Amino acid sequence: MASHLLRKPAQAQEGDVTIIHNLLPRDTRLEYVGFKMIDLKPGGRYEETLQDQECCIVALTGKISVTEGEQTFKEIGTRESVFEKKPTDSVFVSGGKLFGIEAVTSATVALCYAPFLEPLPTRWIKAGDVGVEQRGKYQNKRMVHNILPDSDPTASSLLVVEVYTEGGNFSSYPPHKHDQDRLPDESFLEETYYHEMDPGSGFVFQRVYTDDRRLDETMAVEHRDVVLVPAGYHPVGVPDGYTSYYLNVMAGPKRIWKFHNDPDHEWILERQ
Ligand SMILES: O=C(O)C[C@@H](O)[C@H](O)C(=O)CO
């Protein structure tokens, strides 16, 4: 039986928009993180009024124009495939505001939601301002695009990153968790993983487990699946020959990413 943490892509049509994922708290039982993935044809429009959530609109692929109030961010988005491995543009919109998206070309857009704690200005997060980070060594190498890290005060609770992992490597590894509000040692953050693979016929493995193993799910994750991480360690392993991409959305009561490594596996960081 498929894990309740693994969500498959769907094809629901709403006007011009194909909804691939629509992960609302009532379906996921996540308290903080919401996630929507939409595909738009050229000229296709999507509109939403935010209430008690803020949103980061990530132009995953294709070109889009995003409007909020008097502002329009025209023809943003930098890539036709996430596997061009270059940062893209995003727009942050605070709670209580209405935004519109119009697709200039065929586009895929991620809508990343978290609770709105204070009103903040709408901001275009330019591709050129996204920090690119190489992490790890040996078979633990990955590249991270920091779209909305905790060091950037654009959002009130939302955190968003993209991660690339080449075949034969593990990421989100050594396994780490952030499910206890016990700062300064660890923060409580829920997380979602939206996965893509190149080639798209690939799969990766993701395990989500807690110390007591009351939660212990190992999933074969395919192209465009989402994995929910309500708690626990959540490493990803990528088979040889395939490249993995994932988009992480994180949120919790405090906007700090402070993780705790699984003590059983932390030693891998100490290798010379
Ligand atoms: O460094 C990585 O491998 C990526 C992870 O940190 C990922 O963004 C995550 O698990 C965040 O908690």
How are the SSEs ordered, and which strands pair?
Elements: E1 6-7, E2 12-14, E3 17-23, H1 25-28, E4 34-40, E5 45-49, E6 53-61, E7 64-68, E8 71-76, E9 90-93, E10 98-103, E11 107-115, E12 123-125, E13 131-135, E14 142-148, E15 159-165, E16 170-171, E17 176-177, E18 179-182, E19 186-188, E20 190-198, E21 203-209, E22 216-222, E23 226-229, E24 236-237, E25 243-251, E26 260-261
Antiparallel strand pairs: 1-23, 2-3, 3-4, 4-11, 5-10, 6-9, 6-11, 7-8, 7-10, 9-12, 13-14, 14-15, 15-25, 16-24, 17-26, 18-19, 20-23, 20-25, 21-22, 21-24
The protein binds the ligand O=C(O)C[C@@H](O)[C@H](O)C(=O)CO.
3D architecture notes:
The protein is 1% helix and 50% strand. Strand 13 (131-135) and strand 14 form a beta hairpin. With 272 residues, the chain is mostly beta strands. The longest helix is centred in the N-terminal third of the chain and has 4 residues, at 25-28. The chain has one domain (6-270): Jelly Rolls (Sandwich), CATH 2.60.120.10. The strands form six sheets. It has a seven-stranded antiparallel sheet with strand order 1-23-20-25-15-14-13, with no helix packed on it. It has a seven-stranded antiparallel sheet with strand order 2-3-4-11-6-9-12. It has one helix spanning 25-28; strands at 6-7, 12-14, 17-23, 34-40, 45-49, 53-61, 64-68, 71-76, 90-93, 98-103, 107-115, 123-125, 131-135, 142-148, 159-165, 170-171, 176-177, 179-182, 186-188, 190-198, 203-209, 216-222, 226-229, 236-237, 243-251, 260-261. The protein is globular. Residues 135, 142, 144, 161, 163, 171-172, 178, 191, 234, 248, 259 line the site of the ligand O=C(O)C[C@@H](O)[C@H](O)C(=O)CO.
